[in-house]
């Protein structure tokens, strides 16, 4: 188990690496049963709070004394690449009210349940297109490169209004931005995408098309209510927040389902169980690992501890989702659990804007994959798949998923 860097000898290092791509890092076991809050050490030796209790996580994620502003001193930085300025000034996710709420209201229409339901045929068509290609090409296939990444990339770019001919650039630059382990390459890919989105927003101001960027460019930017550069940054956030998270859920969810053939059989027999399956996969996989990163702006007393102003606070979705006070047998995959008690989409004012869309993508992806390719299986045992290091942050994924049928 990795230990803390020098300077914090007694604290557990955070994040810890996974050994199996769809299970929590074994290193987190040391934190279970130790109360709802613990101190952990980041790669740079700083110690921060890690919140592992479900009730405390919800209380803190809705507490205005915690800030999401990544430029504030004391904000926890998880890996060197997050020091890049492009990662620190993101609208919505790295903003506090009142500016946060203004941006959120601007985006709400395209993310409403009604709008997302209307996207169902489009998303289904995208899912089917990539399954068709896999079937045409024949086995084996890399489910990440051939399905999870292109499906989620195309859905986000449809939502934004990115022209089809720019797809491959878009996908390549996004992937470089996500996988970079250092600030330099991350800044480079972020810069390329920002330059591209800058040109796109300029074009959409007069030729809006039917994506969210076109609506905001032709109305809010053209009429002077939203600065052009802010819309470019918003586009970048939607892209970063919506793409890799959902692709990881498809990849890791597929592995988890293949490892539970009895659940898979139930799903095939009765597709109505699918929403419960998706919810349980979201709870157990917690692909972002963290449900939120914050810095305290005032002292906060909670669960017998005092979080001091300036302290970094990380909320562990992985552990809060497995809080035994909320879920009996929390490590068991049980799609029939009552309620949606997980923090995989966060909580409070920053709760995931794209959760309706993500749920739709996951439902259609799993339904179509397992009904259209009923004999789908991994070509290597899940435990032998390479796992990501902690130098790209905490997003859990499989970079490749070799499958056959
Ligand atoms: C399974 C897939 C997804 C997961 C696990 C996920 C997870 C999260 C989490 C944990 C947060 C809260 C961060 C915080 O409080 O600091 C968040 C926020 C956000 N997500 Fe998602 N997300 C997913 C898919 C998407 C999609 C598809 C989109 C859009 C296309 C999206 C857009 C956003 C945005 C814009 C925010 C910031 C909201 C705000 O700060 O008000 N996400 N997401």
If you had to describe this structure to a student in words, what would you say it looks like?
This protein is of the alpha+beta class and 405 residues long. It has one domain: Cytochrome p450. 46% of the residues lie in helices and 10% in strands. It has 14 helices and eleven strands. The strands form three sheets. The protein has a six-stranded mixed β-sheet with strand order 1-2-3-9-6-4. A three-stranded antiparallel β-sheet has the order 5-11-10. The protein has a two-stranded antiparallel sheet with strand order 7-8. β2 and β3 form a beta hairpin. The N terminus is likely disordered. Protoporphyrin IX containing FE binds next to α6, α10, β6 and α14.
Strand count, sense and barrel status of the largest sheet are:
6 strands, mixed
> What characteristic shape results from the CA principal axes?
globular
The CATH superfamily appears as Cytochrome P450
C-alpha-based Rg, rounded: 21 Å
Strand order of the largest sheet: 1-2-3-9-6-4
CATH class, named Mainly Alpha
**Bound heterogens, unique:** protoporphyrin IX containing FE
The number of domains is 1
- Following the backbone from N to C, one meets helices and strands in this order, namely EEEHEHHHHEHHHHHHHEEEEHHEE
Straight-line distance between termini: 36 Å
Mean pLDDT: 89
Approximately how much helix is present in the residues? 40-55%
- Please state the structural category: alpha+beta
Using the coordinates shown, work out and report the CATH topology: Cytochrome p450
CATH architecture: Orthogonal Bundle
* Overall number of strands: 11
Number of helices: 14
Low-confidence stretches: 1-7
Strand content: 5-15%
